[in-house]
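Problem 3 from the worked examples.
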Amino acid sequence: MPYSQIASQKGNFFEKIVLNRIAEKTGYEISRAREVTDILETNGLYTLNKKVDTEFYSTRNVGFKVGMLKPDLILSTRANNDIELSVIEIKNSDDLRPHHYVQAYIYKLTLEKLLSESTGRSVHIRIMMAHWGKGFYPEDEYESDFELFRKRLARMNPEAITCENYLDLQTENSLNRILQEIASLQANTSECGSCPGADRCGHAHGNHISR
């Protein structure tokens, strides 16, 4: 079995355990939000999988465009008539990398824009990363064997091995700068001729396209 498939199995299994843990801890069942505004209706935990067409950080030549909104989980709560959403991203890793945080931050920006456009009001959104605690991730003989990973994880206490941490403002500012740098990149058209999607891409014809 290719390692990429094993990695996917391990990630899905870890995510399932963490989702169950969050549901038990909050007392909410996980519901599916069919529309973005559904998460504002009542307190609870929601999954959301929706195609969107949102662009951030446009420059003269390039824009950063989002086509799919699929956070692992959203926690919706109310306090003093204010709505607070927590975008929860679950990562099967004890060493989070910048791209993990960028993905979660993009979900936050997308939600902010879509909710503002739909309701005309701002909603406070936080980002929470749920992941392995340092040193708990099963490595060595468990690295490429899903069954060993599954059996070991099933015996472990999710409360003891997983961490949940909210992003601070300094981290969000760094992510904001990273996205603006990405948006400022120029497309490399030197390999357009060999690209199977060249006939559907504006770059191949010298036109503007958002990336």
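Problem 4, a separate protein:
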Amino acid sequence: MLKKTLCSFFIGMLIGALAVILIAPTIMPQSEQQHSLFVYGTLQNNLLRYYACYCLVSETPATVTGYKKTGLNIVPAENASVSGVLLSVSTTQLKRIDNYEHTPQRYTREKIRIDGQTHWVYIKNL
């Protein structure tokens, strides 16, 4: 009986997650300003990103040069690079991610240049 209940629970969770993935893009505000955000840690994961900002956005692989990853942070470093992804998020989604990242207490959101273009990135406070 427990096995059947657990199986039903997980199937329900899967159906709910799929419904959110299919429905969420249709209810997103389209008129808000879009921001480019470089992420290099947990926000690369679609499920964690959805938890952080209730957003399902496309991602583009990207690499920032002149930085290295140290734990949960990136720091300037000559001849180094950090792989991550670029996201296009709305102002509302960016504010939600600020909350997820505990900005400004734990992280600050700063501008960074990648391939000649400016993007937001979260840098851990030291």
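Solution to problem 4. Strands lie at 34-39, 59-70, 73-90, 107-114, 117-124. The first strand starts at residue 34 and ends at 39.
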